[in-house]
Amino acid sequence: MGTRIILKSEAEIRILSEANRIVAATLDMLRKKVAPGVTTWQLDTWAEEFARKRGAMPAFKGYRGFPGSLCVSVNHEVVHGIPSKKVMLLEGDIVSIDFGVKYEGFYGDAAITVAVGRISEERDKLLRVTRESLHKGIAQARVGNRINDISGAIQDHVEMHGFSVVRQFVGHGIGVRLHEPPEIPNYRRNEPTPRLQAGMVLAIEPMVNAGSFDVEVLRDGWTVVTRDRASSAHFEHSVVVTKEGPLILSQCQV
Ligand code: MG
Known about the structure:
Elements lengths: L9 H24 L6 H14 L3 E2 L11 E5 L2 E3 L14 E10 L2 E10 L5 H19 L7 H14 L3 E2 L5 E3 L6 E5 L16 E4 L2 E3 L5 E3 L6 E3 L5 E3 L2 E6 L2 E4 L6
Antiparallel strand pairs: 1-4, 2-4, 3-12, 4-5, 6-10, 7-8, 7-9, 9-14, 10-13, 11-12, 14-15
Helix pairs in contact: 1-2, 3-4
The structure holds magnesium ion.
The site of magnesium ion has 5 residues, from loops.
């Protein structure tokens, strides 16, 4: 991957907006389907069918060999959980659902974490703080700011509430490729980071752990879990930097 950040034209942003609208609608559909007794495999099937009906291809399926359309990560799973008929959601679980599509050559990417029935106060706070940190980060996606302003706003909000941000996985630019420069860490870096310009499209995605930020990959080669097995949450939006400020492309329209 090169280091050049590709600025998008208005026409390209319109297609990226369409791609992300399909992702947002899919996630909204899934949010309503999440319930005790539902398997993560069912969620995957519904997502793929919903996106394909709208002319979009699931972007994660086959990406570096990933077997599903969704990344579905339950409780202490952080990201990249594999959809499975054996994983049934239970009351009190939290489930992170990350979905991407390719539509007319451009990618959309977003994620939400959803409560399964009634959840503990700590998990409820984790979901709230992670979602808030995403929006603190998005608010910094302004012309003239730097990537570090986004990263720092997320980190400060998360750590202020006693949680930690995952170091090993980061947000990214998005366009004709799912992952483009720049990298968008959810923590401040002690080095110069790129300055933001109008036309940059960024997938900002805090992954927040209730305990330590340490993670490990399970033997399936994909599922990332917290090392201490404490809960983890993940929210993501694809955002375009404009002269008027940040515009969320993956916001649900309904
Ligand atoms: Mg992403």
